[in-house]
């Protein structure tokens, strides 16, 4: 099923539906939700996902788990996707929040095969087994650290959202404390209580999310490092390697080697 709206097939008697969708650069899907849970895999490009709980960046070759009924907003950066839409009773993950998941080579191939199945695939045949195995692989997938939680407090949330759009690694907590009319000590306690993270940790995570998006769009490593406020590309690379266990250059190369395959004629 290619570029087919979920509403057209949502009522079909299948626990799992697979749809492939191609998006133009910069496509924005405004806040919406699905009756079914969704596993959204980006074959190419990068996705930015926002909910009331926070913001995620989903690099190529990764996927995002979206629980049933969860309102979410997605910005596509040159993305071709494979989505599995899953009946809530068959959902392989039980968390209440979105999660960015590592896509194993096996799961990747299952997703690519799944979108070539007919809508009313044979439950007892190969296609039914394929969908069942895909659910097992999603259940065991590792969570990737591409999340920046958003606070419930409206004023603090507005500061966090603005920062996510223009992050700077050296923004001092005193600047935010002043805007909220708090002492720096009070602000530090308040920020941790609202987000579950220290301000410095959250700030670095937000910068990492922005860095992944900028690198995926083709911006040079040096330009990204300087835009985020790092003193040098080396300092930026050290942070990147510490968080993702690979240098930025390796991440950039991975964007240029996306797996591809010819579509099977029907």
Record keyword descriptors for this entry.
266 residues; 8-stranded antiparallel β-sheet; 9 helices; 38% helix; alpha+beta
Description:
- The chain has 9 helices and 8 strands.
- α4 packs across α5 and α7 (221-227) crosses α8.
- The protein has 266 residues and is of the alpha+beta class.
Task: Give the distance, in angstroms, between the N- and C-terminal Cα atoms.
Answer: 11 Å
Please, what is the average pLDDT? 88
Q: Give the topology string: H per helix, E per strand.
A: EEEEEEEHHEHHHHHHH
Number of helices: 9
> What is the β-strand count?
8
Helicity level, as a percent range?
A: 25-40%
Class inferred from helices and paired strands: alpha+beta
Ranges where pLDDT stays below 50 over 5 or more residues in a row are 258-266
Strand content: 15-25%
Q: Quaternary state, please?
A: single chain
Rg on CA atoms, Å: 20 Å
Shape: globular
Main beta sheet: 8 strands, antiparallel
